[in-house]
Design goal:
Rossmann fold, globular, alpha/beta
């Protein structure tokens, strides 16, 4: 079972107070929605949970380990934050293979299974630079889930997807939830939030509250 605990987290960039005394807990087998306007603090919160931006004070623990103290970046976590970056001169499989070599946890079989799960199994040798925005987004999701992480942090995962793509990825996320994955997602689409999320939090000017 995985758990993320945020305790009285604050983040300042100079004099700008971006996260304001945020305390929240997230547990396995649930999908949590984070809603808020651009600049509200969603992405900073996500990056802080992932260890990419340290909080100014307070603490964030992932599976009992304090980010920035016990560990720098949680190991068992899949991430989409902002636009996923790829090697445009390679195809989808080679992009995932290159990333998989970093940790050596998965091989060809798992990569091919992941491409099939996100609907990219038929792209063959097509280079990523020729992918549509929706195909690139599917590849970003594949990158996030391919090592079967216990935690997924997804910032606008439906960006660029057509109607069928949105349906496919919603079903995938619900399947991962059933398997016990802890999923936190931000979306501007209220339908994504309503049909996927067990709990919803709204963040505005750095203050986060649970939606009733």
């Amino acid at each position: 079972m995985s758990e993320i605990v945020v305790r009285h987290a604050n983040k300042y960039f100079g004099a700008i107070h971006v996260l304001k005394d945020i305390s929240v807990e997230f547990v396995s087998g649930q999908i949590y929605g984070i809603i808020g306007r651009n600049g509200s603090g969603k992405t900073v919160l996500f990056k802080s949970i992932c260890g990419l931006i340290p909080v100014t004070n307070g603490e964030i623990t992932v599976d009992g380990q304090v980010i920035g103290k016990d560990i720098d970046i949680p190991e068992d976590i899949g991430i989409i934050i902002e636009t996923p970056g790829f090697l445009n001169q390679f195809n989808a499989y080679d992009n995932l293979k290159y990333l998989a070599r970093i940790r050596g946890k998965i091989g060809k079989k798992e990569i091919l299974e992941t491409l099939d799960r996100v609907g990219l199994s038929d792209t063959g040798r097509k280079k990523v630079k020729k992918f549509s925005m929706g195909m690139r987004q599917r590849l970003g999701i594949a990158q996030a889930i391919m090592e079967k992480p216990k935690i997924l942090i997804l910032d606008e995962p439906m960006n660029g997807l057509d109607k069928q793509g949105v349906c496919d990825i919603r079903n995938l996320l619900l399947e991962l939830k059933k398997q016990g994955t802890l999923i936190i997602l931000a979306s501007h689409n209220s339908e994504d939030i309503d049909c996927l999320c067990d709990e919803v939090y709204e963040i505005d000017a750095g203050v986060m509250e649970k939606r009733k």
